[in-house]
Design brief:
By secondary structure, this protein is α+β, with helices and mostly antiparallel strands. It has one domain: RutC-like (60s Ribosomal Protein L30, Chain: A). It contains three helices and five strands; from the N terminus they run αββαβαββ. Strands 1-2-5-3-4 form a five-stranded mixed β-sheet. The longest helix has 23 residues.
Length: about 160
């Protein structure tokens, strides 16, 4: 990504339609800014139409390819939350960290491959400023039986 290209422009170039961010479904806030850090609560793999991209568990009834698409959708929801909180993605200096939660069977071992769906879209949008630290954790279940949930930490200008 050229240094003079804005993150908002990059979203347009990539034809990524940021959905209206979903509201919190429990007693928490979707975003929280502390100094120049913006924390984004875990976002499920909800499509712009409001349905889950993948429902269930990797290694059981969700393919790796569907898991990758679900991780991408969850990351796009993270970005939508960031824009809603900041007004513009161009206030972001860099992506510091992503956390991924993958609903999976105990025998499933391709968590990192699934989470690349989120990491890849982040780097597509933010370029070098999108390269981030990451944790990927397999869990037995997620809210609403979603297959993937992604959280993030951004450094702001």
């Amino acid at each position: 990504m050229p240094m003079n290209s804005s993150f908002e422009q990059r979203i347009i170039e990539l034809a990524i339609d940021l959905p209206k961010p979903p509201g919190s479904v429990a007693n928490y806030v979707a975003t929280h800014q502390v100094g120049n850090l913006l924390f984004i609560s875990g976002q499920l793999c909800v499509s712009p139409g409001g349905t889950l991209v993948a429902l269930g568990s990797l290694g059981e009834n969700v393919s790796v390819e569907d898991g990758i698409r679900a991780a991408r959708a969850a990351a796009i929801n993270v970005i939508a939350q960031a824009r809603a909180s900041l007004g513009s993605l161009d206030k972001i200096k860099r992506v510091v960290r992503l956390g991924g939660f993958i609903a999976a069977t105990s025998a499933f071992s391709e968590h990192a491959r699934v989470m690349n769906g989120a990491s890849d879209v982040i780097v597509e949008i933010f370029g070098e400023q999108g390269r981030h630290a990451r944790s990927t954790v397999g869990v037995s279940s997620l809210p609403l039986q979603a297959a993937v949930e992604v959280e993030a930490l951004f450094e702001l200008d």
